[in-house]
Design goal:
The protein is mainly β. The chain has one domain: Methylamine Dehydrogenase, Chain H (7 Propeller). It is about 0% helix and about 45% strand. The strands form seven sheets. Strands 1-26-25-24-23 form a five-stranded mixed β-sheet, with no helix packed on it. Strands 9, 10, 11, 12 and 13 form a five-stranded antiparallel β-sheet that branches. Strand 15 and strand 16 form a beta hairpin.
Length: about 450
């Protein structure tokens, strides 16, 4: 999560209550080899509201957990390793190479010191750590490198030889980390070309970066500017990055695009717009998010003719920071934190979060909302489909009755005429603060 939750409890559209009696009972199981999850134990969920980190959990550290698929009921990870990370960031601070042999984790904020009691006591992180998963049952720290402070997001390109990182401050630019022989190389940082600073803004930076499926371009979300800019990544003959070049026009989306995802065919880019900003009470308290679809220019378009268009807008969820697109490009799932992170004394506190499901029109990019399903969980973040596209893994920061425990839930996508989501009885219990997931296919 970026900072705090938004503040209303109503959601437009179909709402369904998921309960244990309604959990999907099926012989089908999620597909893939391993599921990775980050847990940050340094703060309680309500820290975004009152600034208090809460009590520490003795003998526990931030963790990268690795669970083998398929899962059983109340499964436990096969292996864990200490990995400093922070939930005080977008759910984009980990990625894994396509071959599944290297996981990379951003340290957005450093581990909590014994004296730290407030969010303001945390120190900015500046490390990228790589974990060797050649044997997923025995992960090990392979290396760590310096990156710009408070970096926010990382993604590894489709060929697995280059990671891109973006940071909270515009001055951080984009950092590229080469990957050779299952090890990260020396980072290179490039400023955003032709981007004029905006000193009138309370903060000005980028919190989301995604590779186009071609591996030639990246999309960067500039949150306060409510813009998406596409850049071509220029590479020398030896594969090193030589520069950035803007690809096409700057696209105006809706307010505060937290993150975005390309459809698998690269034709569309969908952003989750949270409607936060300096003109909102408390910066974060608004009632409804939006999803914006951008039609991306074809790769063979002449450079001087490249034009990207906003083609559709759909109702989003309440604080739906995380979105995932199915491997076949037919569906979008959103995870809405709603008011689950409010103090329980707050009149608008609600213990129920939700998942939303949308069907994508592959030609127009229009999103048709199929429904929204409520469930009890605190600050759910992190979503990924399984390899089949029929199951969704949902990261849960904490549970109401066990605030020191978070986990990963498994929901099934029912691909009938209406399409729906069902909560299954498969889950992994982890330490609190689960917020970023990755799948090794």
């Amino acid at each position: 999560m970026f900072l705090v939750l938004v503040g209303l409890t109503l959601v437009f559209g179909l709402a369904c209550q998921a309960s244990p009696s309604q959990m999907a009972q099926t012989g089908a199981t999620p597909q893939g080899r391993y599921l990775l999850a980050l847990s940050d134990i340094d703060m309680v969920a309500t820290a975004y509201e009152d600034g208090n980190l809460g009590a520490t959990i003795p003998n526990t550290q931030d963790t990268l957990a690795i669970a083998k698929l398929p899962l059983s009921q109340n499964a436990r990870p096969e292996a864990t390793i200490t990995a400093s990370n922070s939930v005080f960031s977008p759910p984009l601070v980990m990625d894994v190479t396509p071959n599944g042999q290297l996981a990379m984790v951003i340290e957005t904020w450093q581990p909590r010191s014994p004296q730290a009691t407030k969010l303001s006591d945390l120190l900015q992180g500046h490390k990228l750590r790589a974990f060797d998963l050649t044997n997923p049952n025995q992960p090990r720290l392979a290396s760590e490198v310096e990156i710009p402070k408070q970096s926010q997001a990382i993604q590894i390109n489709p060929s697995g030889d280059l990671a891109v990182i973006t940071g909270f401050d515009l001055a951080n630019g984009l950092t590229f980390v080469p990957i050779r022989n299952n090890r990260p190389g020396t980072p290179q940082t490039f400023q955003f070309p032709e981007l004029t600073p905006r000193p009138d803004l309370p903060l000005d930076g980028a919190m989301s970066v995604q590779w186009h499926p071609s591996g030639r371009y990246v999309a960067v979300n500039f949150n306060i500017r409510s813009q998406v800019i596409f850049y071509e990544v220029l590479r020398a003959a030896d594969g090193t990055v030589s520069g950035l070049r803007q690809w096409g026009n700057i696209v105006r989306v809706n307010k505060f695009p937290m993150l975005g995802r390309f459809t698998p065919d690269g034709r569309h880019y969908i952003t989750s717009d949270l409607q936060w900003g300096p003109d909102v009470p408390g910066f974060f308290n608004v009632n409804q998010g939006l999803l914006t679809t951008i039609q991306v220019a074809a790769l063979d378009t002449p450079a001087d003719k490249v034009q990207h268009f906003t083609v559709a807008v759909a109702e989003g969820g309440l604080a739906s920071e995380t979105i995932a697109i199915s491997p076949d490009g037919q569906f979008v799932v959103t995870s809405s934190m709603r008011n689950t992170g409010k103090l329980k004394s707050d009149p608008i506190y609600n213990p129920k979060a939700s998942l939303g499901l949308y069907r994508i029109d592959p030609e127009t990019g229009v999103l048709n909302k199929m429904g929204e399903w409520m469930f009890e969980a605190t600050l759910p973040q992190g979503l990924t489909f399984d390899a089949s596209g029929n199951f969704i893994f949902v990261g849960v920061n904490a549970y109401n009755n066990t605030p020191r425990q978070g986990g990963i839930e498994v929901w099934q996508l029912r691909r009938d005429e209406k399409a729906s989501l069902e909560r299954t009885n498969m889950a992994i219990r982890l330490s609190r603060g689960v917020h970023t997931l990755s799948l090794i296919r």
